[in-house]
Design goal:
One of its GO terms (molecular function) is beta-glucuronidase activity. InterPro entries: GH, Glyco_hydro_79. The protein has 582 residues and is α/β, with parallel strands linked by helices. 25% of the residues lie in helices and 21% in strands. It is globular and about 75 Å long. The termini are close together. The structure holds 2-acetamido-2-deoxy-beta-D-glucopyranose (8 copies).
Length: 582
């Protein structure tokens, strides 16, 4: 999807001319902007030091995961009902834009799950089946949850075809409350009734096209929040064992991954007891569990939250996101091999906030959270949601009269670029703000404040042996000049060739973004091009200028000295000297 033309000499000169024009325009705009805001604002230089490996995943792909939920159209929070046509059952899975946008994210994981996954019944053709397949119905108490829900066989065929056409790997949440719902007493939760799950798996088994996109299963969603159903870690572990045995019985030749326990929030003791009960507590024991999942909405509620915007734009809020959870987990498991997975987060809970979580501002917490969790040992990050809710990456709310659904919201491009550029090896990064020489007599306090309002993440793409950077500038007034420490003074050519993707918006709550100053156009089919700014000249090579309240991804070609030194890139150069695009 991303392309960089490789034309003749004429094109090359045109490109150089265009880049000069672009640079001049940006420079002029930047200066004008700073003048307008406050003449006392210093230009700030932030030095980036790329450090040791923080965490290395098994593969460059697969970190970016998106969720699709079950919520029906009459799911409302705070009087806002953002799930119309946004659930796995109601959205138009055959829509070419939806399909193409999902396909554009390399090896994306599609998690199908959520609260209602535990009430859904799988349609069973066997007329003797005791499980009626009923549509969702609001529960009497407590609202706004629902009972029932039905996955028909024809709907599953659509879902399987959707996954096949988009190349998405499915992780499917199996209902863990089957047979456990009608009990009236909190004390006695009966064992899981696996019969409906078994009927579903036997249906899948009939045709490999029905299950070939499924890589794994979850079992139970945030069971710690189900009213009056305290399911102990031991009961939860028994459920996983039962599901594991069922899968082996129905699919003896295939080995599906299991993910859990989908804890809402984190509980050290729950995780410890759950892993102990599964026999997964140390690295010598074989585990049926591939990944440990937890859910977190670190921004608070979607509504009745007057500080939501400020929370997103204050990077300190997420600096330690997932840190103690990762530390505690690896303490309990003695460095067991389980992956650690952010199984569900949409930032703000209860469906997010319209005009915030579906606008440009949303990308600031989302990108930071992806960067921080990648450093804190996480192997996958599932964004709630691909469609549905106010935090959807792809819009299901018709705008105006033209019913233009399934166009990307700004954070879609954040997911897309992160998946393309930020490879398996997450590095520690330190940043240091300093004043430029000619501003030496300006006020220092502004400089310190600004350097604390940037965040930088650095990953090596292991296959392509190149360094990728994500630079976030939260400051609404100051352009930041980023330089890489150890590469800046002696050898400017170290940092070329490279491609830069500067993502800006006309307003923090805009619903469209610009890439390198150009509004990103998505056509009828969902095709788009993010045109990189390719830096090939030494004289423009040192500084990466990031505008106020914007972010940039930078990919250093594997031929560059910085990629070779940090990521073991090859020593050959391309024939035309251009940066290899992602
Ligand atoms: C949901 O989708 C159906 C069929 O595509 C369409 O007729 C209906 O208008 C949509 N509803 C909303 C609220 O967008
Ligand atoms: C889609 O299905 C076809 C036919 O079964 C198969 O050959 C192909 O590998 C599938 N593609 C994906 C991405 O699963
Ligand atoms: C949960 O249990 C409490 C006390 O036993 C009871 O008052 C309440 O109605 C129960 N809630 C539900 C949803 O069953
Ligand atoms: C690890 O698990 C194995 C097999 O269950 C057990 O024999 C061993 O004692 C355990 N080691 C530790 C340190 O818990
Ligand atoms: C790790 O476990 C030890 C002993 O159980 C405990 O004292 C320590 O606080 C734990 N560390 C973390 C980060 O949980
Ligand atoms: C620098 O900024 C601080 C805080 O805004 C202010 O108190 C101080 O007077 C300023 N100093 C100069 C020289 O402008
Ligand atoms: C810029 O941010 C500061 C605090 O970070 C805030 O007080 C100010 O209102 C913001 N200005 C604009 C134009 O958003
Ligand atoms: C400077 O860059 C060139 C070409 O990119 C490289 O061959 C050389 O080793 C670099 N020199 C130093 C001192 O890093």
């Amino acid at each position: 999807m991303m392309s960089c033309g490789r034309g003749g000499l004429l094109f090359f000169f045109f490109l150089v001319f265009f880049l000069l024009l672009l640079t001049a325009t940006t420079f002029w705009n930047t200066n004008r902007h700073n003048e307008q805001v406050a003449s006392s604002d210093a230009e700030v230089v932030v030095e980036i030091s790329v450090g040791e490996i923080a965490h290395e995943r098994e593969s460059d792909d697969g970190y970016v995961c998106v969720t699709m939920d079950w919520w029906p159209g009459n799911k409302c929070d705070y009087g806002v009902c953002p799930w119309k046509n946004g659930s796995i059952l109601t959205t138009d899975l055959s829509h070419p834009r939806l399909q193409n946008l999902l396909r554009a994210i390399p090896r994306v994981t599609l998690r199908i799950g959520g609260t209602q996954a535990d009430t859904v019944v799988y349609q069973d053709d066997d007329s003797s089946s005791s499980t009626p397949c009923l549509p969702f119905e609001p529960s009497e108490t407590p609202s706004p949850h629902f009972q029932h829900g039905c996955l028909t066989r024809s709907k599953w065929r659509d879902i399987a075809a959707f996954a096949n056409q988009t190349g998405a790997n499915i992780i499917f949440g199996i209902s863990a409350l089957a047979g456990r719902q009608s009990s009236s007493s909190a004390a006695a939760v009966p064992a899981w009734d696996s019969s409906n799950a078994e009927a579903f798996l036997r249906f899948l088994k009939q045709d490999h096209r029905l299950y070939q996109s499924i890589v794994g299963f979850e079992f139970g969603n945030e069971l710690n929040y189900v009213p009056n159903r305290t399911i102990t870690p031991q009961e939860q572990a028994r459920g996983f064992q039962a599901l594991h045995e069922l899968l082996q019985r129905v699919f003896p030749q295939k080995s599906f991954q299991l993910y859990g326990p989908d804890l809402g929030g984190w509980s050290d003791t729950f995780i410890r007891d759950f892993l102990a009960a599964l026999g997964s507590s140390n690295h010598t024991s074989h585990s049926i569990l591939t990944g440990i999942t937890w859910h977190s909405y670190p921004l608070g509620p979607g509504y009745n939250n007057p500080h939501l915007m400020n929370t997103i734009l204050n990077p300190k809020v997420l600096d330690s996101f997932g840190k103690k959870e990762a530390a505690a987990l690896f303490n309990h498991t003695h460095n067991a091999k389980q992956k650690l997975v952010m199984g569900e987060t949409g930032g703000a809970y209860n469906s997010g906030h319209d005009t915030v979580n579906n606008r440009f501002v949303d990308s600031f917490w989302y990108l930071q959270a992806m960067g921080v969790l990648a450093q804190h040992r996480h192997d996958m990050f599932c964004r709630q949601a691909l469609v549905g809710g106010n935090y959807e990456l792809i819009n299901t709310k018709p705008h105006g009269s033209d019913n233009n659904m399934y166009y990307p919201n700004p954070s879609y491009f954040a997911a897309y670029l992160f998946a393309q550029i930020m490879g398996a090896q997450a590095r520690h990064v330190t940043t240091l703000g300093r004043m430029e020489e000619h501003h030496a007599n300006a006020n220092n306090s502004g400089m310190e404040d600004s350097s604390s309002r940037v965040r930088v993440y650095a990953h090596c793409h292991v296959n392509h042996r190149r360094l990728g950077l994500l630079l976030l500038n939260y400051d609404n007034r100051t352009t930041i000049d980023f330089v890489l420490k150890g590469y800046d003074n002696d050898n400017n050519s170290d940092l070329i060739p490279r491609d830069e993707y500067h993502i800006t918006a006309t307003h923090i709550q805009a619903d469209q973004v610009q890439c390198n100053g150009e509004t990103v156009i998505v056509d009828e089919q969902g095709t788009f091009h993010l045109h990189p700014r390719t830096i090939i000249h030494v004289d423009s090579g040192i500084i990466i200028k990031v505008l106020p309240q914007s972010y940039a991804f930078v990919v250093f070609a594997k031929e560059s000295v910085v990629s070779q030194r940090e990521c073991g890139g090859a020593t050959t150069t391309t024939s035309n000297g251009m940066a290899s695009t992602v």
